[in-house]
Structure formats: C-alpha cells, structure tokens
Amino acid sequence: MLDKYTLYGIPHSLYTGRARSYLIKNGIPFRELSCGHESFKTEIVPKAKLATIPALLTPTGEVIRDGAAIIEYFEVRNDRPCRPKSPRQRLVSDLFDVIGAEGLLRPAMHYRWNFPNENLDFLKYHFLNAQRLGPNRQEKTDYVMDKMRFAGRMFGVSDTNHEFVESLYMDFLRALDKHLASVPYLLGWKPCIGDFGLLAPMFAHLGRDPKPLAIMQREAIHVYRWIERMNSPQQDAAEFFEAGEGYLSDDLIPETLIDVLRILAEDFVPETRAAANAINGWLADANPPKGKRAARYLGQNESKAEFTARGEQLAAGAQPYRFYLLQRVQDHFGTLSSDEQVTVKSLLKRCDLDEVLDITLERRLGCEGNLEIWL
Ligand SMILES: N[C@@H](CCC(=O)N[C@@H](CS)C(=O)NCC(=O)O)C(=O)O
Q1: How many of the other CB atoms lie within 10 Å of CB of 320?
Q2: Which residue, by CA, sits nearest to atom 20 of ligand 1?
Q3: Given this model, what pLDDT does residue 296 score?
Q4: Confidence class for position 361, pLDDT limits 50, 70, 90
Q5: 31: which strand partners?
Q6: Is this structure's pTM higher than 0.90?
Q7: Residues 359 and 277 in one domain
Q8: Measured in angstroms, how far is the CA atom of residue 244 from the centroid of ligand 1?
Q9: Which residue range is the domain that position 304 belongs to?
C-alpha cells in the first residue's frame, strides 16, 4: 500500500489542473499517473464508474472521480482550509468554482482547437502520450483528437462566432489581469475554492496551449503569474512586497473582482437560464427514476439550449453538472441570515449575477458511487 495519494490525470486536461493545484497548495503528498497507465483501466475505472480524469486513489484504496469531489474529500477532513468563512466571499468563491468549471468552456475549446498552425504539434504530442501503449496507439490518438476537435461546437462555438468568443474572453482576461495586479489570489493572499475552479480552463488550455499562452503572456502578465503561483507549493507572491495571509478582511470583494464577474455574467447567466429551461423540459418528459445517473448532456442537437449574449445567438449543450455545482451556491445562500442575504444579493446584483440564485432545476442532483444522480 502506498503512503501517498495517486492522482490520475494528464498535463493538458482541463479538470485535472484544478485538482492538482489543490493537492499542491494544500501540501497533500501525491504522485501523478497518466490515464494511459495500465492501472487506470484495470484498477481505477471499475471503481470510478466513468473513465474521466481527474480521479484520485487514496492510500486506503478508495477511488474518487471528479475534481470537485476530490477537493471536497479533503475539505471536509481538514476543516475546510480553502473556504472563506464570511458570506460574500464564500459565495463568490463557490460561484467562481461553477463559472470556472462550466462557464469558460467556449474560449478554452476555441483557443485549443481553432489554431492548428500554433497548437497542433503540441496537441499531437500530448494526446499520443495519454494513450495506453499497445497496438493502434496512433489510430486511437487520431480518433480522440477528432472527437475533441468538435467539442467546442457542443459548448456553442460555431464557424461564425469566433470574434464574439474572442472579444468576450479578452475583456474577461484584461479585467482579471487588473484584479490580480493588486492581490495574488482571487480573494487575497491565499487561494480559495474559486481559484481552483477558475484554474481549470485557465491552466491546461488557456494558460498552456501555445496560442492562448502567447496571448496571456503578452496581454495579461498577472494572470500568467497567478497560474504559475497556483501550481507552486509556496505562496509565490514575490512581487507583493507586503504580502499578507488569508483572505481580505471585512468580507471585502474588491471593485476589480466585481468587474470580472460582470463580464463573466454576460454569457453565464443567459446560458444558465436557457440550460435550466432545456433540462426542466427534458425532466418533465423523461421523468428519470430517483437514483438514475444524470448524464453529462441530455442528448445531442435536440437538447441544445439557445440563448443570446452580447447580441450573439448561441446554442450549447445543456449540462446538468452546472446545476450540481450551482446547488451549492444556492444552498449556502439559503443558510444565511436575512441581513446577510440582503448584502449578498446586492453584491450579486452589482455583478449582474443575482438571477443565478433563483435558476433551479425541477429535481435536485446528488452524487452516489462516483456518479451524479437525479434525486
Ligand atoms: N465533472 C468531471 C469532468 C471530468 C472530465 O470531463 N474530464 C475530461 C478531461 S479534462 C475527460 O476525462 N474526458 C473524457 C471523457 O469524458 O470521456 C470533473 O470535474 O472532474
């Protein structure tokens, strides 16, 4: 039996980056193995139920699939080191977790797959090396890459909306850069759950693939430094000569962070609203039995949620998982005193995000045996 954890993941995986950073930042001893390692198929997948990464093997042989579940596993056992205690900061942290995990998939996929001149050799290397050794390795790699090449479409990238995806991303990137010029992490001097969620798209895709990495290094140095910092066991805030500890005092949410959230809201809110309508329509028809697995997508084209952002019409796959994470935000809001609710709501209103407190599915989601299920 190993005395440390094993994280199954790969360098270019979006969701692995979030879990890896959490382990590094919290000093949790681990080794990382590829999902191409023989043991992933033989020992991990049977317990993980789905072959997604990240998956964590604990020293006692337990397997935890899903980045949010891996983080939660440690949070509950360690008195929640990465959850701010004050109401506005906790809510903003959880909200960044949802938006990071679900709300930036369009730019992440666009900047990875729509710039073959800059990215293709880099991607070929990584996708090949994520495949198990054995016959037809190259064919399998080509198959996976072809499948992923079109993933952006599922998230709403079309042949004609690249300019929209890029302008929204660049506005977000510049606003985040401005914010991270004054603090090393989203809420102050140490990372919160929201930093890890946001790191998912910002590391493996937008802060690592050649095309978006060059943009970030050129236009958003503070964001680039935050990504480095999120992968360091140290606070790694050398440029902040008077660095503090912990989160900002007095439940402060800086104006620069409100600006970031306001930009993220532009497509996150209409998309969430449209996805909820699509899923609720599906729930009414399908009425899945209690305990049934909530699939990643409801189906293919017929279940796309249509919405408008910045005057652009979009269609994206409706994913129940977004609401699985959003439930946490809403549940937390429900536990606040009425005074705290007023404060939090007025903050979210300023960010154009207040509606997300009320967008719900007709059925709750839970997690059982490593799968998200309908309750
Ligand atoms: N909800 C999961 C999603 C994990 C996920 O989709 N991971 C991708 C790689 S970044 C994957 O394994 N894709 C392969 C598949 O879906 O079959 C999490 O947050 O960990």
Answers
A1: 23
A2: 66
A3: 86
A4: very high
A5: 6
A6: yes
A7: yes
A8: 35
A9: 87-108+162-374
